[in-house]
Amino acid sequence: MTSEEVIAALASSLDSGLASTEAEARLAKFGKNRLEISKKITIWHRLLNQFKELMIIILIVASILAFFMGETIDASIILFIVILNAIIGVFQEYKAEKAVEALKKIMSLQATVIRDGTESIIDAENLVPGDILVLEEGAKIPADVRIIESAMLRVDEAILTGESVPRSKSENVIKDEEVALADRNNMLFTGTTISSGRCKAIVLETGMKTEFGKIAGLTTQINEDKSPLQKELDHVGKFIAKLALGICLFVFIMGIFEGRNMFEMFIFAISLGVAAVPEGLPATMTISLALGVQRMAKRRAIIRRLASVETLGSTTIICTDKTGTLTKNEMTVKKLYVSGKVVDVEGEGYDPSGKFLHNNNVFSDPTMIGLLRNGLLCNNACLKKEDQRWSIVGDPTEGALLVSAGKAGLNNKSEHDNYKRIFEMPFSSERMIMITIHRSASGKLKEKSSLLAYMKGAPDMVLDKCSLIEINGKIKKLTLKDKKNFKRISLSMSNDALRILGFAYKQLKGAEAKNYQKLKESGFIFQGLQGMIDPPRLEVKEAVAKCRAAGIKIFVITGDNGLTAKAIAKQIGIATDLTKIITGLELDRISDAQLINELKEEVIFARVTAEHKMRIVSAIKKQGFIVAVTGDGVNDAPALKKADIGVAMGITGTDVSKEASQMVLTDDSFATIVNAIEEGRTIYSNITKFIKYMFSSNLGEVIAILIAMLLLPGTLIVSAIAILWVNLGTDVLPALALGLEPVEKGIMNKPPRNPKERLINSKNVLDWLVTGFIIGAGTVLIYLLNITDPTKAMTMAFTLLVFYQLANVFNCRNDSKSLFELKPFSNKYLILAVLISALLQIAVVNVEFMQRIFRTTSLSSSDWLMIIIFSLSIIFYEEINKLLIRLRNNKKETASQYSMN
Fold first, then answer.
1. Which of 356, 560, 630, 695 is the most buried (most CB within 10 A)?
2. Which residues are catalytic?
């Protein structure tokens, strides 16, 4: 529709806007122009959420049963552990929420609006469809609006579309039926910012109906899935429930067949079932994850949900945004073409330091200096330094030109003092050029009455206005061959995703100098080209290589141009020449089955909307992959929330993206994601270690009691409180220490774990049962050897159980490496934990008041020696087992190499 048709359709007026009464009526109809933010989760709600896990429910049931059986101490301790676990979880989430501010109202702005024929400033939340807005440079757009009138309008839409370069906008009609969001050049969207120019616009949509609001709505509608770890713990909980129930039934039925009292056997069976439950597991898991969160915070990653720590370690695919994530979000001049030479420009970002190199030699000539001076003077941006950080105010493209001039030693202030600007013909999307006219203040021009006109813009448009060319400071006629050569070079630079600007100047004399406001756009002297790009971060290439080695696939999903994204992806090792580009419009035309097929290849998604990103993430998850999504803009928020792990940028990220994420990077670096993945893998590896430790140890306790029941009917070789002490007293510290095992060498050279792989599988259970049988059999044997003194026999069995487990913890440090291959003091916490647990058990055996509680007696030195020898047998067994595993693995590797040869 034309501007006039839009105004008529909304019953408004360009000159007088809406009447106040009509605006009030529409406000009542359409509502306030603000986001409907969902209610924040209260502390009490967070606390209740901690009790929803199956493992916790099992422990609560166990404590209730223990209470009714009269074991009030056991019941109290279990409940204490459950509550402690919940408090740790809530505290960690609360801390993370404080680190990442809650979702803010982005629309808390003011707007200049025409109502009743008068311009006035109102709160943006009171805008309604049909309001006429007056928007100037630097203004943040408060609603979705259609442009009615404009002048040199350029808008930064990176927050919404991900495009790094401000786009030219105008009121011109768009005739295409299908137009991507980023290509709707007669529309301005909520939250974006006017980089330059001005306009009048009419409000079309407000609040939740804006593009911003739709994205916020999508984000709030998405229910977060359980993390892989939470799903796995549910599986563990079910296993424990089945194991405990199976043991209870077996013992109860066996007792009935032996003719024992049914009620007594029921109580005994329940006691044994409770003993099978590793009470310390949830607390150990939570503390281990919390410690991991602290370590990750030191590596500049804030984790907002504890379970998300491990999810990173399971990641198989990363979907990354381009602008600000892979790149610096700072336009930088990388190449010049001047005096027939391609010149490389060193330096990063907006720091005006770096060399100009041709064939690796420092280069400079008068034409290059003139070209850079042109870029500095024909420019409205400003370069500034605050807190040791360089930044620009204004258009990023113009900022890049200031930086390149600064690298040549040209000072912005002195150059503007020497060449005073007296006139400007602003850039427009139709003319594609900008011209400024300057008067020399230092007599540098040959004629005092002469002026200098500087031109920059699209290379073709600039070339068409030139008849001369400057080479090495000398002016020559611009030939057709020269023009073809410049167009060839321009195309070559464009293929490297560089944004190209051409530069020219001319000296105005006589009548032309007097009538400079009616400048003839011809007879200019062509100087050369500057090519710029938003460059990749320095550390990203190495991070991508680590992901490749770790078997993690990377997809670039951006709102920016596909060729630009592909060029950046090629530089950092994500893409090749064969990588396919799929646009948002193409995505709309393919089915989900076709999309899944495309995801099997190397592909870049460009010009996509928030809905497209979410669809891609959903397609990846449907295939069973664990997907991490990175992003910083509003357009990234739904995909961040849909992902298994959403990673938002802490510096450039919007509040919406942070709120939707599970992790926030405080340095915005892609490399920090890789560090976090390494940390996540280590945490998962350590979780498997202490689960192995706890289950094999607990099964040892259960097997000991079952064997004793068969051999010594009616005899309980270890008391219930002793079992609880083993599970909560001496188990927890070593298990926690296992959670602090250092990173295993080569952990990032392994493929991600299979998402379908279970922590508890038949192989693991069989290994645990064998270990448990050795512990159980040894415990019964030491009891039988001392059976003449029942108190001493129980003390020996009880203490051996503890020492078996303290020895077993060293077996769990690695699945295949010998204990003697590992550095003994690489985990000092483990040594300390074992010493403390051993000392606690010695106190239980020797301190009088503890003897009364645990019904123990003092032991002789020979008794202690026997306990130590028995406990070391578990290490002997595990060393033989690991040797066999290594021999099998070596045999497989040899066979694999032989088949390849």
1. 630
2. 321
- Output the CA–CA distances (angstroms, integers) from residue 573 to 96, 494, 555, 599, 747, in the order listed: 33, 19, 12, 18, 21
Structural tokens at position 25 = 């009526």
Residue 885, classed as helix, strand or coil, is: helix
Domain 332-533: give its CATH code.
3.40.1110.10
Predicted pLDDT of residue 98:
52
264 Cβ contact partners less than 8 Å away, ≥ 6 residues apart: 255
Q: Domain 303-327+538-675 belongs to what topology? A: Rossmann fold (3.40.50)
| 227-297+681-743+756-891 and 303-327+538-675: identical CATH topology | no
- 137, burial (CB in 10 Å: exposed 0-12, middle 13-18, buried 19+): middle
Q: How far is CA 90 from CA 50, 664, 670, 803, in A?
A: 8, 18, 29, 34
* Model confidence, pTM: 0.67
Considering only the top CATH level, what class is 3-30+108-141+144-205?
Answer: mainly beta
Residue 269: per-residue pLDDT: 64
The two structure tokens encoding residue 577: 């020449």
Q: Do the Cβ atoms of 848 and 856 come closer than 8 Å?
A: no
Q: At what angle do helices 54-68 and 281-298 cross, to 10 degrees?
A: 140
- The DSSP code for 756 is T
Specify the CATH number for 227-297+681-743+756-891; select among 1.20.1110.10, 1.20.1250.20, 3.40.50.2300, 1.10.10.10: 1.20.1110.10
Is the separation of the CB atoms in 780 and 797 below 8 Å?
Answer: yes
What DSSP assignment string belongs to 227-280? PHHHHHHHHHHHHHHHHHHHHHHHHHHHHHHTT--HHHHHHHHHHHHHHHS-TT
| Counts of helices then strands in the chain (DSSP H, E) | 32, 28
Sheet of 301-303: strand order equals 301-303, 663-665, 645-649, 627-631, 317-320, 553-557, 603-606, 580-583
Tens digit of pLDDT for each residue in 103-122?
A: 344 334 788 899 999 888 88
Domain boundaries, the chain: 3-30+108-141+144-205, 227-297+681-743+756-891, 303-327+538-675, 332-533
Q: Between residues 301 and 603, which one has the greater pLDDT?
A: 603
The CA distance from 306 to 649, in Å, is 19
- The rounded distance, in Å, linking the Cα atoms of 784 and 868 is 17
Rounded to whole angstroms, the Cα distance separating 773 from 704 reads 8
Distance CA 102, CA 658 (A): 8
Distance CA 403, CA 380 (A): 13
Distance between CA atoms of residues 858 and 796, nearest Å: 10
**Identity of the residue numbered 288:** S
